[in-house]
Design brief:
This protein is 36% helix and 15% strand. With 652 residues, the protein is an alpha+beta fold. Among the domains are: 80 residues, Orthogonal Bundle (Arc Repressor Mutant, subunit A), CATH 1.10.10; 83 residues, no CATH class; 48 residues; 85 residues, Cathepsin B, Chain A. A 5-stranded antiparallel beta sheet has the order 20-19-18-17-21. A 4-stranded antiparallel beta sheet has the order 3-7-8-6. Strands 9-10-12-11 form a 4-stranded antiparallel beta sheet, with helices on one face. A hairpin with a 5-residue loop joins strand 18 and strand 19. The protein is elongated and about 115 Å long.
Length: 652
């Protein structure tokens, strides 16, 4: 479409040369956001545009910061368009989608989208916050725990049946469990320290985000790591979230494919494997709560967005100002701004708590501890009980703490009977406690007396028998040093695992300020950006594992050996001996660049396609601008010149 129309209006505002913009359009259409080698650009040469000109275009794009590069271990470079820039660039190249309105009116709902992946992530975080997540000796989660986690999440294995997921311990983890755990790890919400625990600082930031921002972060993870290394599939997944596809409107999958092929963003025809993935992507999005699935009158697959991730807004702080795509390093992603704690819940006389969808997950975090979750939907329902109050007490929240929390964040306070019940439970619960202590046991009386004399009046130890002492947790390290000093080193260092305490996240403490969010985005913190190295699912090309190439790119990188050829070859039209002319053309073929020919008093240009053996030898040339292919022998031209591409924006 770009080459045919001859216009670069879509690229207005980009700080790149004309060649750079032309090259960028071809890269987007051919490779999407997939990494590519410099040599692969030669395959994109068409309509008289040489591979050498496209290489010069890459130089402009790299210098403008639109295309980045990484370096493999052996020094080979891979180039790619940033995942933050790509959505906006792709949207510029696309246009409105044609809708079959009569057919769309006949779409029937086949599968309603689930409540949302953010709820699944939240419920697993809550469970781990209360119970921990220890691992077996093989590094996997216990089967009993997996069954419990499976009951918490609404994403089903069947939602992922057509998505090729690669992750460790496939025999232990079902696909839905693997996806939820992968997202928690990749977003930085889990920490792996022997067992898996909640990363409290990350959770504090995460729970302060609006649900739309949470879903956006999840969708970016899907785009970055869940798509096979196929440009067609990446084009498809990104295009679904463009502004041309609106929330609440039905679209046929067949129409989406046709729309993208017209621009063209997809090859024609698509393969069966690609078609299966495209439908599977919609099924996965349905399971994650992004879309509803429908069927047309003839059984055609259709979908509609329930909540469309607005990827294109990530690259701009000024609406749709296209110039902002060059300022991505200086931009704070406004989609990740912390949500104000404006939503309030309602405490009912029957001890139920009604929680509307606008109530922050930071408040829900505490509700999960002090009440039982009954339903999770647009209006979630919790219920307070003596049992849930006792559970909260075990994690350091007294009934009076609960009453204060509910009073502060409930829309109209709490009913008197609920307040009185909490007060009564406060009198009944927590009046006694079972506490863990470390026992220091001696094997003989002599050792016991040595320890007793040394302890003296310090009262660090509590003697409970001839050979036994109680050691308080806060004194454990000091007593260990004392035993070493007395040459009574214990056979084994004993550390009693304290009971798990549910993290306390204070809604009144502004830990997730705008500046913190901005810093997290710029520093590429896992819980606010894709491609983190903690996730375990990856289906694309792993660009993030390579070292970022910060070395300045020069013309010599594009045309190796340019300082070794005679400079006269490039300066002017000249006549050459047959062997020299052949060497010049061989160099043009190596660089994929054009030549200028003086033929019968006229000057013309062409792109060498290959040398033909014979006597005399010939060269196959794509003549410009006619685009006709001719076979020329050395005797058919008078003068010859090697043409290196020129770009006014590129110097040196």
């Amino acid at each position: 479409m770009i080459m045919q129309s001859g216009t670069l209006q879509w690229a207005e505002g980009l700080e790149a040369s004309e060649l750079g913009k032309l090259t960028l359009g071809l890269i987007i259409q051919s490779y999407a956001g997939q990494p590519f080698k410099l040599e692969q650009l030669d395959k994109l040469a068409r309509d008289g545009i040489s591979g050498a000109e496209l290489r010069l275009g890459i130089l402009s794009l790299v210098r403008a910061g639109i295309v980045g590069a990484v370096k493999k271990t052996w020094g080979e470079r891979l180039y790619f368009i940033s995942d933050r820039l790509y959505p906006k660039l792709q949207e510029r190249l696309l246009g409105p989608i044609s809708q079959r309105e009569e057919a769309v009116d006949q779409v029937s709902l086949d599968r309603e989208g689930r409540p949302g992946i953010e709820i699944d992530l939240f419920r697993v975080l809550v469970w781990v916050g209360q119970n921990g997540l220890p691992l077996t000796a093989k590094g996997t989660i216990h089967q009993k725990t997996l069954k419990r986690l499976s009951g918490l999440i609404q994403l089903e294995p069947d939602d992922l049946r057509h998505i090729p997921l690669h992750y460790p311990h496939r025999d232990a983890y079902s696909a839905n469990i693997a996806v939820v755990l992968d997202l928690l790890l990749a977003l930085g919400l889990f920490e792996r320290r022997g067992s898996w625990t909640v990363n409290e600082p990350a959770a504090d930031v995460w729970f302060r985000l609006a649900p739309s921002a949470m879903r956006l972060a999840v969708y970016r993870q899907l785009l970055t790591r869940y798509i096979p290394a196929d440009p067609n599939l990446q084009q498809y997944a990104y295009a679904l979230s463009t502004e041309y596809i609106q929330e609440g409107t039905w679209y046929f999958l067949e129409d989406i494919i046709g729309w993208m092929q017209r621009y063209p963003m997809l090859t024609h025809p698509i393969s069966e494997v690609q078609s299966t993935f495209m439908l599977g992507w919609l099924e996965m999005l349905c399971g994650l709560g992004f879309v509803d699935l429908g069927l047309g009158k003839e059984g055609e697959a259709a979908f509609r967005w329930r909540s469309r991730p607005k990827l294109q807004e990530q690259t701009s702080t000024a609406g749709n100002d296209v110039n902002d795509v060059n300022d991505v390093n200086d931009v704070m992603d406004t989609r990740y701004s912390p949500a104000a704690l404006e939503g309030r819940f309602y405490v009912q006389p029957d001890f139920e708590i009604l929680v509307p969808s606008d109530v922050s997950y930071l408040l829900r975090w505490e509700l999960e501890l002090c009440a039982h979750g009954m339903t999770y939907d647009a209006m979630s329902v919790y219920k307070i009980s003596r049992e849930s109050t006792g559970r909260a007490l075990e994690h350091g929240r007294t009934p009076s703490d609960l009453a204060a929390f509910l009073e502060k964040w409930a829309a109209s306070g709490i009913p008197d009977n609920v307040r009185n019940a909490l007060r009564q439970w406060g009198k009944e619960l927590g009046r006694t406690s079972l506490e863990e202590r470390v026992l220091l046991r001696c094997s003989d009386k002599e050792a016991a007396e040595m320890i007793n004399r040394y302890d003296g009046e310090q009262s660090k130890l509590e003697r409970i028998g001839p050979l036994d002492f109680i050691v308080h947790h806060q004194d454990l390290k000091e007593i260990h040093k004392v035993l070493n000093h007395l040459n009574l080193t214990p056979r084994k260092s004993v550390h009693s695992e304290s009971s798990i305490i549910y993290p306390r996240l204070d809604p009144d403490f502004p830990v997730a300020s705008d500046s913190l969010i901005k810093e997290a985005v710029q520093m590429d913190q896992g819980y606010l950006s894709p491609g983190g190295d903690q996730g375990w699912i990856f289906s694309g090309t792993a660009v993030h594992i390579y070292e970022r190439d910060e070395e300045p790119m020069a013309l010599a990188d594009l045309f190796p050996g340019s300082d070794e050829i005679p400079q006269a070859w490039c300066k002017e039209l000249r006549s050459y001996h047959s062997s020299t002319a052949k060497a010049l053309i061989q160099q043009a073929l190596a660089w994929r660049t054009k030549i200028r020919l003086g033929m019968k008093g006229k000057v013309t240009e062409g792109l060498p396609l290959g040398l033909l053996s014979g006597n005399p030898w010939k060269v196959e040339v794509l003549m410009l601008p006619s685009l006709q292919v001719q076979e020329l022998s050395c005797s058919e031209w008078d003068t010859l010149q090697l043409l290196l591409p020129q770009d006014s924006c590129i110097k040196g």
